[in-house]
User: Fold N-methyl-L-tryptophan oxidase from Streptomyces bullii.
Amino acid sequence: MATRKRVAVVGTGTVGSQAAWRLAARGAEVVAYDRFAPGHDRSAAGGETRVFRSVQTDDGRYVPLVRHADALWEQLQTETGRELRRLTGCLFMGPADDPEMRTVLDVVSEHGLDHEVIDAEAVAKRFPQFRVDDGDLAVLDPRAGFIRPELTVQTAARRAEELGARIRRYNPVREVGPVAGGGVEIRTDTGTERFDAAVVTPGPWVGDLLPDLPWRVDVHRAISAWFLPTEDHQAGEQRPAFIRTGGTHFYGIPSPDGLSVKLGLSQAHHKPVDDPNRLDRTVAPEELETFTAMVRRHLPGLNPDPVRVSAYMEGYTGSTRPLVGPLPDCDDVILLAGFSGQGFKLSPALGDIAADLALEGRTSQPIDFITTLDRTTA
Ligand SMILES: Cc1cc2nc3c(=O)[nH]c(=O)nc-3n(C[C@H](O)[C@H](O)[C@H](O)COP(=O)(O)OP(=O)(O)OC[C@H]3O[C@@H](n4cnc5c(N)ncnc54)[C@H](O)[C@@H]3O)c2cc1C
Assistant:
């Protein structure tokens, strides 16, 4: 009989909680660490919602990974009976000749994804919450909607615990390193533990924990702002999430209770974070100017004064492709970091891939374009 592998998960956030679930489900002995507790909002997760979408706006190579994630989202919901994701659709909008809109159209046709192309006139009629310009186009992704990030992290972590994983809360890992002869050692303020392998998912703290990484991950501060409609919607009306390209790139997600709409801007609008331990969570009035301008220009049904604002942080690689795979000096340490604004929708698939790599040393998922193996630049 094969011996049971002992695997550490460093960081029980978005990807780490999913990795703990997948590892525990596959019979590993799992110990997961977090500097806070699962579901906290001091890093990349938090803020009530994230977009799930089947259609990728930048790179069709993510499509098979999104499909794998999609199946695991369903599985986690079924296993736990929690509504982690609601499929309300996602509307991509922008000038018909915008390169991102062209990529969306290329990706849906190349991968045979369910979609609907809607011209500007029809958008104005069907979705009066948006002000569109002549020459705009919209693509509706019906297998899309929103994810509830805090609930997802807590649910995946709880499911992992039900399956036998132990979670060491408020227990920052200070060092992860290989042990002579194989295996990994994890050092915390309370002691040192040995494992057969470690899955390392520290999000924005990756440079803090692994200062000698050969790849650069820059941490950026992203603001979310919530806006109220000027009139009540019809009860039970499900409005889609949306992404607007061309000019200022921004996205919006109706809140799960239907009472507000959360907006976010693209990476170009994020400030750098020098130290993830000192994220500035205060949002200055001038940081809201672009949000207000977008509401005035494109979202006529919203009051342009935000009712809530929050700051989060995320790790970005130079290519925006995440780093997934072993560290150069240690096959037993599997790194997953630098999700560059893409990680939530993919997180169950990333957790499953982490389990493949930690338990079997390989995965059948198509990760050639994001693997750390032979990768010289981030
Ligand atoms: C505002 C915003 C909006 C976004 N919108 C979307 C979206 O709509 N759709 C989408 O798919 N993605 C979206 N993303 C991206 C997505 O949220 C991230 O890619 C994802 O959350 C990153 O997951 P992670 O596991 O790497 O990091 P995290 O979720 O931050 O987890 C890292 C965990 O590691 C812990 N940790 C760190 N260091 C240590 C240590 N030394 N010891 C122990 N624990 C440690 C932290 O406490 C944390 O819990 C968005 C990101 C932001 C910031």
Notes: The longest strand covers residues 218-227. The chain is about 25% helix and 30% strand. Residues 1-88+145-215+319-378 form a domain with the FAD/NAD(P)-binding domain fold (CATH 3.50.50.60).
